[in-house]
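Archive transcription. Copying these from loose printouts into the bound notebook so they stop getting lost. Printout 1 of 2:
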Amino acid sequence: MRENNIKMISIDDVPLNGFHQLMTVRSGGGWVLDGYILSIIGVALGYITLELQLNSFWEGMVAASALIGIFIGGFLGGWLSGVLGRRRLYFVGPVIFILCSVGQFWANSGLEVFIYRLLIGVGVGFEYPVAGALLVEFLPKKYRGSRLAALTILWFAGAALAYIVGNLILSSGNLSAWRYVLLSPALIGLFLLVVRLGTPESPRWLMSKGKDEDAERVIKKVYGASFSLKNIPAQNSEEKLSLSAILKSGYGARMLFVSLFWTCSVIPVFAVYAFAPKVLDSLNITGDWAAYGSVAITVLFVVGCIVATKLIDIMGRRLMVIHSFLWSGIALLLLGYFSDAGGLLILILFGSYALFIGGAQVLQLVYPNEIFPTEIRSFAVGIGASLSRVGAAIGTWFVPISLQSIGIGQTMYIAAGITFIGLISSILLAPETKSMSLEKAASLQR
């Protein structure tokens, strides 16, 4: 009788076990490293420019190289993980990070640094669809939303660690210390590579390829000898789509939503995060106010993500993304209107934006991993990651030009407009997946 009861328990409903904790570390470590390795260039770029005598063209190319790489890696990793599986590609990112970090140490030209950073971006692009899909396909539904949302917090933690470690290394005063700064991610990459050894393939992916015996072996190893394929919720066979058919199906609307909301949530964030001191200076906030304000805004980005992670299973996904875009958009609108106001009001509005956008930030990994079936899940995440980074690159490039040509007030209005596009797309297209099994969340028939 007890065995029959176990057979009826879905793996989406099992308690969190040690394997789930280990998988969270394995995938979460990738986001720490992503935040670290993408942010470390900001610490070292000035020193690289001095020693390698980079002109403005190569300085800009080095700064943008990783974002270009993410665009390539997101598409490539998303497609390959659907064809070859999650586990094989789980090691691609760490290997690229280690080899290219070592390569950067010996770089002697802007072109060499650009190539290594481009390849690093490809590795980061692989991480989004591969690590996210592998984690979500093992997690119980009760913990899926909060665990995926927490990955965004880990990214910011990695970014903060990069600034701390990078500045400590540069404090030596050696002009070539930047080489050790860019080498430092290799140590984290090596740790991540070792931790990921022994990771099994996703049983859901194995079943989608007709490898039922392999899937059953994984299930028994992870969940116990009494579990089998019967404990995986059945996927509607009509939803087993080829990648070429995705836009012709009902999933085309979901792909549009993921692309729009992800892109609209990162363009203003990357612009504000990268140019906070410059933006604050344009808002007449200088001196200690600017220094403390930049730190406070960065902290509030993290706080916003933490709060959203705590609320995601209470509010639900749809309500959270709508409120996040609404209130953060209003904050940006007010920043444009009160661009000539005093420092305290500006910092309050800036901080409000950083806090409220946390909901949309954490959903960047939750939504695309939940609302697509196994066959196209990693591909959808890859597209979202790729297109959002195009938006991030455009936003980062546009801010200094916009500040100079049309001023801070109009720049904030544009950022608000982008945020409200995200709001409209969420109102029209955002589904609710709270408390659903992965199969039900991904189903078009509810």
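Printout 2 of 2:
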Amino acid sequence: MLIGIDKMNFFTPNTYIDLVKLAEHRGIDPNKFTVGIGQSKMAVPTITQDTVSMGANAALPILDATDLGKIDLIVVGTETGIDESKSSAAFIHQLLNIHPFAKSVEVKQACYGATAGLMMAKDFITTHPGRKALVIASDISRYGLATSGEVTQGAGAVAMLISENPRILELEDVSVSMTESIFDFWRPNYTDTAIVNGKFSNEAYVNFFSTIWEEFSKRTSYSLADFNAFCFHLPYSKMGKKALLPALENESEDVQKRLMSHYDLSTTYTKNIGNIYTGSLYLSLMSLLDSDENSLKSGDLIGFFSYGSGAVGEIFSGRLVEDYDKHLLKEAHQDMLNNRYDLSIEEYETIFTKELPKTDGTHPLSEAKYDKSHFYLSSITDHQRHYNERQ
């Protein structure tokens, strides 16, 4: 049975800060942002956009009535869940009007969560032929104003419909995972911002890739020359290159050129959105496919490196399906990015520092000037979140 990604889409809030503007305001050479880490713009969510609303906004455009009746599993991978008990998936299940006899769960392991969801979905479809699964990655990356990690923040969500006979990507069966309990990046329950050991995190990322790749290559007999592209978890656009370049040293010039040119295509969306944690690997896939100018074709092999600090990593692979390009949403993606609101520094800092109410009572929320999204967080009443739809 062939199982994989049948439909996919991403969402990002329609407010952002230009990183040249931010660098100049912070008294930093803009090249440190735009060249050093390779970022141009950073999504900034209003208080009315959270894990639930972004996930639902990502999924809505790709689901029709048939899908809603066949989705029996909803998995949300996130490290910025909105409740310590109730899953984001339960909220999203209701917002999307998926039939009642579906299971809805949230998965957490830093930026690896959505990949865990994807593998769960693949196994589920294997034992439930004819049914479908919805995998969503939704996160808001926060390190604080004027911090060393400020420039690698971002927000967004990815939605993937997983089914038999997929129309975009067929997942291959062999994958290799690795777990090691380390503290390269973590966020205790009592803080809204992450704690990062940047140098160690970069080293761990590269080590995980090289170690897992060696084992993956043994199990599959694949070499890098067999791949037409390799997509990476991208907390910022240059991160994957730190792992890929050493692995390419002994490959031919043609292989190096092919993989590096496709790597560059896979970073376009990240450069303009920032770090979306669990969704960043799949954002890189959409960036690659949307940006490609006919160098990829059906049957081409694509590799994937998923990494979640703390740490879990996985390498897996998939093949593009015939006419996959007819099922991409590249124009809608470009329109979404082109029609965002460019925040001033004052607007950015005001939006960033707003906090949700934490007391009893009814608290309406409004960011109508900025937030034009279909689903949005409209109020909190006695600690319960309520969402609305724009008509």
